[in-house]
Design a protein that fits this description.
The protein has a domain of 159 residues: SecY subunit domain (Preprotein translocase SecY subunit, Orthogonal Bundle). A hairpin with a 5-residue loop joins strand 1 and strand 2. The chain contains 18 helices and six strands. It is mainly alpha-helical. The protein starts with a helix and ends in a 10-residue tail after the last helix. 63% of the residues lie in helices and 7% in strands.
């Protein structure tokens, strides 16, 4: 037992589980000054509660994305953008500052919203008698956001994966568990032969897991060579997951917006009904929007011209046998991004079709399964890395934000047989530019540290290498 507690991966698993447990338990703590009994009456439940974690992690997620977008245009932020580690840390500090203000703003709206809710008996759900109570309640909501960030950072530093990823994973698993219960309950109520329904549903369920993994493993190589040694390389690869899962969210949001607005006007209710899930127009518009967003985001994330300029600044050039690299990359991008776009479209409409058209109680697909699959890949990579380096101390030597650059360095290190682990690498495939809160951390054992740093310095301009702040 003593040897077990000395085991590095055992410690990481225990810390990760402890962080997740603490997060889930805090989610059960009710918000102060809320009338729980009246809340239970309102929702006809004996377990209704509004948690102190009502804001969740979203203020930090939103702040990180806003700062990332602003760093494209605002000069003093743009100066810190790129692969420089200290520059990224400055952007992270701005993200935390913005997180505070967003938390205060969102917390204020939540409190005001609760103050306006009445129970069936006419009693207020939330009663604040003075400004001091208001400040105390708002402080609780804001502090809870930074408490979540503390838990996430603890898991990132000492756990089996990125802390925010683990917290998101716990929420997604909980949601899927609830959906499975809903599935079982619905399946028992409808007049269908479960001998056919369950296998059919399981096939679709596993398709949502294995198809994205297959697309992730499908790659196309851009042959390069480096000025320092003129050796050819196949490190720059594209896979078929080029736009992440953001097209799903943007497409469904944009599609539901006109239907929601039209539904408020009596004269346009019939038009709004055509845009509801289950109609042909809804499916057709979903396909068009997913396709547009997938190619739009994928192209912005790849940005071939800027990428080749960065590679050239590091000493990489396209091999002479590979003519017109940008044009060729454009053609391959158009082909390779199509299967992923179709998969995202299927992930949106397939559960809907099965439920509405065929009365099959399919509640297991969609974005939750994608999130669980990709974060699980990160955890499996960590366990595999531990198995190969059981007795070695692990060091974080670099941090990346650009997924394509991280992939190229990953392929290079693999070709040199260097042992390493990229924390958050697979989860970032679902986020790309919109996931700065999930950095890709390069972890290596001590005996590989110098060799890995030397390769990044020589071939990638020291991209993301961790340096101490002055």
């Amino acid at each position: 037992m003593k040897n077990l507690f000395k085991n590095q991966i055992f410690k990481e698993i225990i810390i990760s589980l402890a962080v997740i447990a603490a997060y889930r338990l805090l989610g059960k703590v009710p918000l102060p000054f809320v009338n729980i009994s009246e809340l239970n009456v309102l929702f006809s439940s004996s377990e209704s509660r509004i948690s102190i974690l009502a804001l969740g992690i979203m203020p930090f997620v939103s702040a990180s994305v806003i700062i990332e977008i602003c760093s494209l245009f605002i000069p003093f932020l743009k100066n810190h953008r790129g692969g420089d580690y200290l520059g990224r840390k400055v952007l992270q500090k701005y993200s935390l500052i913005l997180t505070f203000f967003l938390s205060v703003l969102q917390g204020k709206f939540i409190i005001q919203g609760l103050e306006g809710i009445l129970s069936p008996s006419g009693t207020h759900i939330l009663m604040l008698s003075n400004n001091l109570q208001f400040i105390a309640l708002l402080s609780t909501l804001v502090a809870s956001v930074f408490l979540i960030l503390f838990l996430a950072e603890t898991a990132t530093m000492h756990g089996v994966g990125n802390g925010i990823s683990l917290l998101i994973l716990s929420g997604s698993v909980s949601g899927v568990y609830g959906n499975i219960s809903k599935y079982i309950g619905h399946a028992s109520e409808i007049d269908l032969n479960l001998f056919y329904v369950i296998p059919f549903t399981l096939i679709i369920f596993f398709s949502f897991v294995f198809i994205p993994i297959y697309l992730l493993k499908s790659t196309y190589v851009i042959p390069l060579k480096h000025n320092s040694d003129e050796s050819n390389s196949n490190f720059f690869m594209l896979n078929s997951c080029l736009s992440g899962m953001e097209p799903m969210g943007y497409s469904t949001t944009l599609l539901m917006l006109p239907a929601t607005l039209l539904a408020f006007t009596r004269n346009f209710e019939s038009i709004a009904s055509f845009l509801h899930p289950g109609t042909f127009i809804y499916y057709f518009c979903s396909f068009i929007l997913v396709l547009l967003f997938s190619y739009f985001f994928g192209w912005l994330f790849l940005h071939p011209k800027r990428r080749f300029e960065a590679l050239k600044s590091w000493g990489w050039n396209v091999q002479e046998t590979f003519q017109y690299p940008i044009d060729s990359l454009k053609q391959k991008f158009l082909i390779m991004n199509l299967p992923w776009s179709i998969f995202l479209f299927a992930a949106i409409i397939l559960p809907n079709i099965l439920i509405i058209r065929f009365n099959v109680p399919f509640y297991l697909g969609g974005s939750s399964l994608l999130i669980i699959t990709f974060i699980s890949l990160d955890i499996v990579s960590r366990l595999k890395f531990w198995r190969e380096n059981v007795h070695e101390k692990i060091f974080k030597i670099a941090e990346f934000q650009d997924l394509h650059h991280a992939t190229m360095i990953r392929n290079h290190l693999k070709s040199e047989n260097i042992k390493f682990y990229l924390q958050g690498y697979y989860h970032r495939h679902l986020l790309f530019f919109f996931g700065p809160y999930i950095p890709i951390n390069l972890m290596v054992p001590f005996f590989e540290k110098e060799r890995a740093v030397a390769i990044i310095n020589r071939y990638y301009g020291g991209l993301g290498i961790i340096v101490k702040e002055k």
